[in-house]
Amino acid sequence: MKGLYFQQSSTSEEITFVFQERENLPVTEDNYVKLQVKACALSQINTKLLAEMKMEKDFFPVGREVAGIVLDVGSKVSFFQPGDEVAGILPLDSEDPGLCEAVRVHEHYLVHKPEKVTWTEAAGTIRDGVRAYTALHYLSHLSPGKSVLIMDGASALGTIAIQLAHHRGAKVISTACSLEDKQCLERFRPSIARVIDVSNGKAQVAESCLEETGGLGVDIVLDAGVRLYNKDDEPTVKLQLLPHKHDIITLLGVGGHWVTTEENLQLDPPDSHCLFLKGATVAFLNDEVWNLSNVQQGKYLCILKDVMEKLSTGVFRPQLDEPIPLYEAKVTMEVVQKNQGRKKQVVQF
């Protein structure tokens, strides 16, 4: 039985993906479930976080967002039985790669998959669903009538976040990084209040948002990264398309919430003073907090269940690429790790 792993170079941050033969899974005990994997979604691996959590090893398992059939359960498992269709996210310290025919996982990381939801939909949506819920529900308290700016709305996360915001009755503004993304966002139903095309680098995001909100500013911002410096100082064209941190602060309304994916965000005293005057908050989107805190396990399972329910009822309609076979996972994962893909990539078994 083969599984996909990655190995990090000791001299650089570059990582290599390799297939390795695995031993048979141990006997399923206690609260563990043996799962036959039917689909596994591919996401970028945060090697820096793994290093900070002291989880470095020679070969690290790849693939965590899985959907499959329960084959066997331990004696203390109370939620599942053999034959159940489930989905979940393997923990950071999982010994098993999701990109394998079978995995062993604690029952608290799984929920039942509705019959109407396909394997690829379940695996391909579950993590972005958790991220969208974390950002909009737990970090910014989304409610009907709020205005929300979702940066890069045509991305896998952006798509789910827009759909969740619309479902909660919010007014959505979004940015598009290309003409194709703009056309994709304009097809959304319910329609997005304004799509701001930033592909030519000339769009004024702050001005557009203030105009759309009558000068009040938006209540919630979910960014896809921000520029910390002037355009001339940024190293790549892609970074130059991102809004500057001052633009985000400018477009925030009174009591607004800025949810950022920029883990190295630097705020100068004038930035902090401006946020203080607005009574605004900044929160960091790190969906791994659910994996790192056992205290929050009940909330986490509620989110996973709700993501599956919204998939089943059609609230979530993920942007998935065509499913790929396991033997193409290595090459595809290299593309995903470089953040070169747009739609979610899912391996189907």
From TrEMBL:
Protein name: Quinone oxidoreductase-like protein 1 isoform X4
InterPro entries from the UniProt entry: ADH-like_N, CRYZL1, ER, GroES-like_sf, NAD(P)-bd_dom_sf
Organism: Balaenoptera acutorostrata (Common minke whale)
A Pfam family recorded for this sequence: ADH_N
Limits of the Enoyl reductase (ER) domain: 10-347
